[in-house]
């Protein structure tokens, strides 16, 4: 672990009653990298995200964001974080702009800076021209772009994406996958992206395979493929046999 890590998860365990959902999970996410968290249904991805965002709490293991422990220094730790949950949290009856202004106000960002940041992020996701439309009028892919833009307004160091392309058609999914990978290349942002879709993973990504609450593999994708001589699909199937 180094000061460079946007996220450090160390020996983290969590159980729902007697049901173990995470079992001594350890990994790091670096600045300027997209780390794909690949796991079948029930692997523990959402539980991990709930712990990183402090919806749940665990006394077994630790989570640090940019070096700040989320239990001991939660305000500073959570300030480093942008999140897009599986379920949309935009207000459909407000415009794109109103939704984003609400977020900047929550983060105490002044009007002038808020307008600048909103323009920057909406332009990045090719949504600035749609800013006066009600969210209800946008298609699923465009709503997701607005949600990702919103999660970036306060300039977090780590962006968490919990299966952000679920329910989208192929072109919308591809658009989001490309936009996020471009974003990581252009900035020093660290991304942790939960998915069960292998085609969302790029060769330059970092990959963590989670299965039944345990980390089965963690590696740069390109290196993993060279080392095993297999496809991601084959590696994933082998490690999660009978569950994928
Ligand atoms: N509230 C809960 N109460 C009891 N068990 C739960 C609860 N939430 C999740 N679990 C169990 O914990 C394990 C991990 O679930 P989790 O939702 O974190 O997995 P996931 O990888 O996000 O799956 P999915 O892709 O289906 O969202 C599963 O076995 C699940 O059944």
From TrEMBL:
UniProt keyword annotations, A-Z: ATP-binding, Nucleotide-binding
Gene Ontology molecular function: ATP binding; ATP hydrolysis activity
Keyword Nucleotide-binding annotated: yes
Family matches, as Pfam families: ABC_tran
Domain ABC transporter residue range list: 7-237
InterPro entries assigned: AAA+_ATPase, ABC_transporter-like_ATP-bd, ABC_transprt_ATP-bd_su_PQQ, P-loop_NTPase
The name this protein goes by in its record: ABC transporter ATP-binding protein
Lineage, highest ranks first: Bacteria, Pseudomonadati, Pseudomonadota, Gammaproteobacteria, Methylococcales
């Amino acid at each position: 672990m180094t000061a460079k890590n946007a996220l450090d998860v160390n020996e983290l365990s969590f159980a729902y009653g007697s049901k173990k959902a995470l079992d001594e999970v350890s990994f790091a996410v670096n600045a300027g990298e997209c780390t794909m968290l690949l796991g079948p249904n029930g692997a523990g991805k959402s539980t991990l995200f709930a712990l990183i965002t402090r919806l749940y709490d665990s006394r077994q293991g630790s989570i640090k964001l940019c070096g700040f422990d989320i239990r001991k220094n939660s305000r500073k730790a959570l300030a480093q974080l942008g999140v897009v949950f599986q379920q949309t949290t935009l207000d459909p009856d407000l415009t794109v702009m109103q939704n984003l202004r609400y977020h900047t106000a929550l983060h105490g960002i002044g009007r002038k800076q808020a307008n600048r940041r909103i323009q920057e992020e909406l332009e990045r996701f090719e949504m600035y021209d749609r800013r006066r439309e009600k969210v209800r009028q946008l298609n699923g892919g465009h709503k997701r772009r607005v949600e990702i833009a919103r999660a970036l307004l306060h300039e977090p160091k780590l962006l968490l994406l919990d299966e952000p392309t679920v329910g989208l058609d192929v072109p919308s999914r591809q658009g989001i996958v490309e936009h996020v990978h471009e974003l990581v290349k252009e900035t020093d942002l660290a991304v942790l992206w939960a998915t069960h879709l292998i085609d969302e993973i790029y060769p330059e990504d970092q990959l963590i395979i989670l299965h039944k609450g345990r980390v089965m593999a963690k590696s740069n994708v390109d290196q993993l493929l060279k080392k095993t001589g297999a496809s991601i699909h084959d590696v994933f199937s082998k490690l999660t046999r009978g569950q994928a």
